[in-house]
Design goal:
- The structure is a single chain.
- The protein is mostly helical and 538 residues long.
- It has 24 helices and 4 strands.
- It has helices at residues 2-19, 28-56, 77-100, 107-125, 130-148, 155-186, 191-201, 208-224, 232-235, 242-250, 255-262, 264-267, 271-292, 298-318, 322-341, 346-352, 364-384, 393-403, 407-415, 420-447, 461-486, 491-501, 506-517, 526-534; strands spanning 59-60, 64-66, 69-71, 74-75.
- The strands form 2 sheets. It has a two-stranded antiparallel ribbon. Strands 2-3 form a two-stranded antiparallel ribbon.
- Helix 5 (130-148) packs antiparallel against helix 6 (155-186) and helix 14 (298-318) packs antiparallel against helix 15.
- The termini are far apart.
Length: 538
């Protein structure tokens, strides 16, 4: 009972501060200080709740409703980790925004909206019933839309908010229909009861309608996590203050992944849904990783990075590595919050970390040899930890992709100063990174063993093909990046750079759809187009 009370008070502390009146003469900075106190209390309550779950196990409150539909709270290891993460990031963002917006006329309004958005995300995490989870999704979306329109006079902000609104309503509709189908199957929307029924007697519920419900849940997650092709809204939220970008990329964007993790036991009853999730997530991660390499603006580059990382996370879920996906969420959130909040100092950081070039890019042949070496090293270290492609395909595949970040280091060790000591040092570093990766995976599996499924055996040819394609594709991306740098003046590589810099024009197509179905959404190019139409012919 105390655990659920602490969970309930976590978002409530934020709501109370957001709803509190401002006294005559009180400055916006003073109100922001009060918001920091509320966020600190929320973080402390989240830690208290997580400690209670760690000692006494999962807890749930009684249902306030009828027939399995209503409001309830459910907290376990998954919700504890996510709640501590979101409340910590929220506290950092609110502290940052006190100085960032100091003197802005809308500072007090911004702080209230930020508190409400954070409280909505926390309510989503502790939801024990799909009805409450849907309401929290809607509340999060509406609060975020208000934040996106903080500078409502900016055309790009209006377009981003319109695209986000359309995407959110589509995802909400998918989740509502999926919830109706789940209720028809299980007779309840209580999340713990759905999980128990799916684990204990899942085969009895398998049917085409359950597969449809799983596909709708997957669609909801992809829309919430800005997956291709409806990813463009995430690229255009740069018109909002930086704290909004930090909270969005480090917290709100994880809502889709959390939904998949929360209902993972149900999704395991519908293999086609997981396969779709793996394909779309893998394709998004691949394309976004390529596009990210061509971006010059730091915040746009970070946005493409978020899209790619969400694709990785959903790919892991699609391959059945749910604990790995949760670890990915935690690591990415902490990194991305720091990256956005420090983005204003990126040039100073770049100057401070500059080092002379070692003498060019490694030879393509040695690059391919290094790729094969790190893949083999990942398989070998995984085998030492008892991880094989059959037992945990996603961990092996994503481990290979992770170690590809060290390919240039290994190739340069061979290329620049080919001696045994340098090559051995690079190999030991790669082995150490692989070891740390598998240790962290094992620790997360132990922590969330009772909250999410531990995974599934790679028995199907489809799963093996997807994982193999992921490894080969990102190996090709590594070689592609190397060749783009070596042959930057060649016509083919110039054209490839231009197309990738424009995101393969996928966002342009979605903009046209929004402008067609949302005429009030402004076209930021309209003044320039009108000027061209009225200009005299030369």
């Amino acid at each position: 009972m105390l655990i659920t009370i602490a969970a309930l008070l976590t978002p409530l502390a934020l709501c109370l501060v957001a709803a509190s009146p401002t006294f005559l003469g009180q400055s916006a900075r003073s109100f922001a200080t009060r918001a920091i106190a509320g966020a600190t209390a929320s973080f402390a309550l989240a830690l208290l709740m997580a400690g209670g779950v760690g000692i006494w196990g999962p807890a749930r409150s009684p249902l306030v409703g009828y027939g399995g539909i209503g409001m309830s709270i459910h907290v376990d290891a998954l919700s504890s980790i996510m709640l501590v993460l979101v409340s910590f990031v929220g506290l950092a963002v609110i502290r940052y925004s006190r100085n960032y917006l100091d003197g802005d006329p809308g500072h007090r309004r911004f702080t209230r909206l930020l508190l409400l958005a954070l409280a909505s995300v926390e309510a989503l995490i502790i939801s024990g019933n799909l009805a409450l989870l849907i309401l929290a999704f809607v509340a999060t979306s509406l609060a975020l839309n208000k934040l996106l329109l903080f500078y409502s006079e900016r055309p790009a902000a209006k377009r981003a908010a319109a695209k986000k609104f359309v995407t959110s309503r589509l995802s909400d509709l998918c989740l509502v229909i999926a919830s109706g189908l789940l209720y028809a199957h299980f007779g309840t929307l209580e999340i713990p009861d759905l999980i128990t029924a799916a684990r204990d007697n899942g085969a009895a519920y398998a049917s085409w309608s359950l597969t449809l419900a799983a596909l709708l849940i997957v669609t909801t997650a992809m829309l919430k996590s800005a997956q291709l092709p409806l990813h463009g809204w995430l690229l255009e939220v740069m018109e909002t203050p930086t704290p909004v970008s930090a909270l969005l990329h480090a917290g709100i964007i994880n809502a889709g992944g959390f939904l998949v993790l929360r209902l993972a036991d149900v999704l395991l009853l519908a293999t086609p849904a997981l396969e779709v999730l793996a394909v779309i997530g893998g394709a998004t991660a691949l394309i976004a990783s390529l596009v990210m390499l061509t971006q010059n603006a730091i915040k746009v580059q970070l946005a493409w990075s978020t899209i790619a990382q969400m694709g990785f996370m959903l790919l892991q879920c699609g391959l059945g590595a749910f604990s790995s996906a949760l670890l990915h969420i935690v690591a990415h959130s902490l990194y991305k919050a720091h990256a956005f909040l420090s983005s204003g100092s990126i040039m100073d950081l770049a100057r401070a970390s500059w080092t002379p070039s070692p003498g060019g890019q490694p030879h393509p042949a040695r690059l391919v040899v290094s790729l094969a070496a790190v893949v083999g090293l990942t398989l070998a270290v995984g085998w030492v930890f008892g991880i094989t492609p059959r037992s945990n395909l996603a961990q092996i595949a994503l481990g290979c992709v992770l170690l590809m970040g060290l390919v240039h280091l290994v190739a340069n060790a061979i290329d620049e100063r080919p001696n045994t000591f340098v090559i051995s040092r690079a190999a030991l570093l790669a082995a150490a990174v692989a070891g740390i990766y598998f240790v962290l995976q094992a620790v997360m599996e132990v922590i969330v063993a009772k909250s999410v499924p531990l995974g599934r055996m790679a028995d199907g040819a489809v799963e093996l093909a997807i994982a193999a394609l992921v490894v080969v594709s990102f190996g090709a991306v590594t070689v592609f990046q190397n060749q783009m740098m070596r042959q930057a003046d060649a016509p083919f590589w110039i054209a490839a750079y231009v197309h990738l810099k424009n995101g393969l024009y996928l966002n342009t197509l979605s903009n046209r759809l929004v402008l067609a179905f949302w005429p009030s959404s402004p076209n930021p190019l309209a003044p320039e187009l009108q000027k061209r139409r009225t200009a005299p012919c030369p």
